[in-house]
């Protein structure tokens, strides 16, 4: 199923659920909380998510074999993470812009995997990226800045954190707790 728009379409509702096996959405903006659950292959590109007020995250992924996100902006949401990945999900994302949130910008937990490239995460009153419960992350070429808590917090998860810029953090730039097999290569840390 392919859903696309050429006329600045905005879907406005409390929540938008994607549970189809395979779906591709492009050039559609959401003023809603978006959940992907139990899917095999979902792609969302060239979209903006705002005004989400409920759920675990503005864009939440559960029990999904592969979700691919490209050129997505998440902002103007209420007290929930920007992206929330959980329950054995696999996400590949590039050119993501998550900013100005009161909660953590991106969460990956419960044995999920995330490959995040060439993205900007900034201005959070919590963490930039938080991962727990045996998840695996690869973060490459991203800018993570202006967080109140650690920009990257791995708790019982592993990660490859490569060639990122981390700046303007109130606490630690990177915090690792009970995590094995993590690599940190070529990262720049400024203004702690």
For the report, how would you describe the main beta sheet? Answer: 19 strands, parallel
- SSE sequence, one letter per element: EEEEEEEEEEEEEEEEEEE
Given helix and strand content, the structural type is mainly beta
User: Helical segment tally?
Assistant: 0
The shape is: globular
Q: How many distinct beta strands?
A: 19
Intertermini distance: 46 Å
Compute the gyration radius: what is it?
A: 15 Å
Query: Percent of residues in helical segments?
Result: under 10%
Poorly predicted sequence stretches spanning 5 or more consecutive residues = none
Per DSSP, what share of the residues sits in E-state strands of 2 or more residues? over 45%
For the residues shown, what is the average pLDDT?
96
Q: What layout of secondary structure does this protein have?
A:
Layout: E1 2-18, E2 22-37, E3 41-50, E4 59-62, E5 67-74, E6 83-86, E7 90-101, E8 106-108, E9 113-117, E10 120-124, E11 129-132, E12 136-140, E13 143-147, E14 152-155, E15 158-162, E16 165-169, E17 174-177, E18 183-185, E19 188-190
Parallel strand pairs: 1-2, 2-3, 2-4, 3-5, 4-6, 5-7, 6-8, 7-9, 7-10, 8-11, 9-12, 10-13, 11-14, 12-15, 13-16, 14-17, 15-18, 16-19
């Amino acid at each position: 199923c392919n859903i696309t728009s050429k006329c600045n379409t905005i879907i406005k509702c409390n929540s938008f659920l994607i549970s189809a096996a395979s779906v591709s959405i492009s050039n559609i903006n959401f003023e809603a909380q978006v959940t992907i659950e139990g899917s095999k292959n979902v792609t969302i590109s060239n979209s903006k998510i705002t005004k989400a007020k409920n759920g675990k995250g503005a864009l939440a992924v559960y029990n999904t074999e592969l979700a691919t996100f490209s050129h997505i902006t998440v902002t103007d949401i209420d007290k929930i993470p920007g992206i929330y990945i959980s329950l054995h999900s696999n996400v590949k994302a590039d050119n993501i812009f998550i900013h100005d949130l009161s909660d953590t910008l991106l969460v990956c937990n419960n044995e999920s995997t995330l490959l995040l490239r060439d993205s900007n995460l900034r201005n959070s009153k919590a963490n930039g990226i938080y991962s727990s419960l045996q998840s695996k992350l690869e973060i490459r070429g991203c800018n993570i800045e202006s967080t109140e808590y650690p920009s990257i917090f791995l708790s019982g998860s592993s990660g490859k954190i490569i060639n990122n810029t981390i700046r303007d953090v109130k606490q630690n730039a990177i915090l690792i707790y009970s995590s094995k097999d993590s690599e940190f290569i070529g990262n720049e840390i400024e203004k702690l």
